[in-house]
Amino acid sequence: MDERRLKDSFARVAAHGDEVALFFYSHLFLAHPEVRDMFPVSMSVTRDRLLTALGQIVSDVSNLDSLVPYLSGLGRDHRKFGATPEHYPAIGRSLIATLAYFAGDVWDDELARDWTDAYTLVSRVMADAARRDEEQHNPPWWDATVVGHERRAIDIAVVTVAPAQQLSYRPGQCVNLEISQRPRLWRLYSMANAPRPDGTVDFHVKIIDGGQVSPVLGRGPGIGSALRLGPPFGSLVLDTSSANDIVMAAGGTGLGPLKAILEQLGHRGQSSTVPRTHLFVGARTAAELYDLADLEKMAASNPWLTVTPAVSHERGSPGDSALRIESGTVADALARRGTWRDHDAYVCGSEAMVTATVSRLTALGASPERIFIENFGWSEL
Amino acid sequence: MHPDRLTPEYLQSIQFPTARLGKRGVDETHVRAFCEWVETELIRLLNEKTALEQEVWRLRERVREADVVQPEDGHVQAVYILSRAQQTADKYVANAQEYSRDIAEDARRRREEILTEAKTRAAAILDDAHASATRDAATMVSAPVAEEPMTAERRQDLETELTYLRTFTQVCRTHLRAYLESLTRSIDEWEHAEHDAARR
User: Fold this and answer.
1) How many A/B residue pairs have CB atoms within 8 Å?
2) Would you say domain A245-380 falls under CATH 1.10.760.10?
3) Residues 78-117 of B with CB under 8 A from A
């Protein structure tokens, strides 16, 4: 396998952009019409993801240490779409046909062999990971039903679901989920609670204007309605080996995973063994601080916990709650408390919020390797 | 004389003339001529066989190639047509999403406007009530100075009136709150309805 040749020919092909993925999927669906049903009606997002994944694989083709875990994750994750080992050769044929079409006159038998070898390797790693996952009796997805829905603000709701089979996860992790009203559209949500004895899970849902899934989920898909959860994953989990005090920064519904971690800390029993924890929770307006009542209760019953709410788009106020609401962003509120040296930091929110908060925390003395954020990686695919 | 083509029947039926006097066996000239003719026939058959083999090979290739995608064949046309259909579907979904986003954003903006206006109005009503209460209190304070000491009956009346005013502002506030809540509810319903419509 000639790495240079692979990369060069891929660069040539990728220059055609969206047309490449468009050709690939049309080719695949013509050869195997039954596969079409595994994809959503609108394919634009799927196509973007395919090109990103191919680019990632090609650029990492000689770096097996990072490529193999990435592909294994992809393979396991594709089980929830209903992918089986039989699908891989068909995909390979359409992929090679697509590459041949767009590579133009540089395509020859040798290049075809290089690409075939590369694809065989990739699909073997993916299929093997999927097979091992199956052998460990992990289901391809978890069936669940909606058991609770609470609208907390005009565009924020807390949805509680009950998985039919126990879902094991670490607080802070997330799953891709698919609601029955919007088939084939999988969206990422974090579990907003530590595992409960009854197995139910909360999701904090922000309704996105013009979104396809969040408006249905946020307005209430109806008690008893069905959904599927993919396998839990995620790197935003508590470092239990650390004895450092903790600072948490939550923006909007980014509070979900951090609240799950707070519950985990609370389950430790002896409150003297729990690291002192300061949670900063931010929103645009006080009406969007949707979980203050609960946080207040947690702060009142856990001496190790301090909660500071902040609003960025209106003036802070003493508010109706016992918690005083500060003015400014979460990063502003953090900065007013001095330095955060020797703290473990957990940050979750919008991309802009995370970037701003991480750089502010670093400036305030937190060491970058002690700042934990969600790194989605392959899960975005 | 021999036939045009060599056949098994001809070989079975062949009879060579006997040799001339003084020699034994069949006539050598005839046999040699026969062998030459067989050789020519054999070459011809071998050539024909090679040509046929080539033809078979060519046809096989053609069948095999039909299984492989060739950039110029009809399959590419089908891929192209399906791709365009997919793009059309993508565009419809994107347009619907855009439309629903616009409506939701618009509704959100109007909701904020209405709430702000209602808050301003509520503040004005409260200010008025406060001002008139202050005026009444001032009258109450100044009245006794100007006239003779207030009778118990008069004081009772004023206190009743004060209680009434307090209750009245309370009722005003409650009504205002109910009004605001019903406004929020209607906006929710309106938003809902437009979402449903957009989805349809």
Assistant:
1) 63
2) no
3) 78-80, 82-83, 86-87, 89-90, 93-94, 97-102, 104-105, 108, 111
Q: How far apart are CA A70 and CA B20, in angstroms?
A: 96
Q: What is the value of pTM for the model shown? A: 0.72
Q: Where are the domains of chain B?
A: 8-67, 110-199
Q: What is the pLDDT of residue A378?
A: 41
Q: At what angle do helices A3-14 and A44-59 cross, to 10 degrees?
A: 160
* Residue A249 · residue A349 · CB < 8 Å: yes
Q: Say if the Cβ atoms of B83 and A26 lie within 8 Å.
A: yes
CB within 8 Å: A42 and B90: yes
- Give me the mean pLDDT over the A131-142 stretch: 93
Whether ipTM tops 0.90, in short, is no
Residue A85 per-residue DSSP state: T
Question: Confidence class of residue B13 from pLDDT cuts 50, 70 and 90?
Answer: confident
A258 and A251 Cβ atoms separated by less than 8 Å: no
In this predicted model, what pLDDT tens digit does every residue of A207-217 receive, in sequence order? 998 889 999 99
Angle between helix A18-31 and helix A87-103 axes, rounded to 10 deg:
140
Distance, CA of A119 to CA of A122 (rounded, Å): 5
- ∠ CA A281-A285-A290, nearest 5°, is 55
Residue A260 near residue A192, CB atoms below 8 Å? yes
> What topology is assigned to A142-229 in CATH?
Elongation Factor Tu (Ef-tu); domain 3 (2.40.30)
Tell me which residue in B98, B184, B188 faces A210 most closely, judged by beta carbons: B98
Q: Is the dihedral of CA B47, B53, B56, B60 positive or negative?
A: negative
Find the CB nearest B101 among A26, A29, A209. A209
Q: Which residue has the tokens 């957009």?
A: B198
* Residue A39 to residues A21, A97, A184, A211, Cα–Cα distance (Å): 14, 20, 6, 18
Domain A3-135 = CATH 1.10.490.10: yes
- Residue B168's alpha-carbon distances to B118, B134, B161, B162, in angstroms, are 19, 15, 10, 10
Going from the C-alpha of A201 to that of each of A159, A162, A198, A348, B11, the distances in angstroms are 8, 6, 9, 19, 95
Q: Is the pLDDT of residue A263 over 90?
A: yes
User: What is the band of A94 on the pLDDT scale with cuts at 50, 70, 90?
Assistant: very high
Cα A48-B199-A47 angle, rounded to 5 deg: 10
pLDDT single digits (tens) A279-329:
999 999 998 999 999 999 999 999 999 999 999 998 887 666 678 899 999
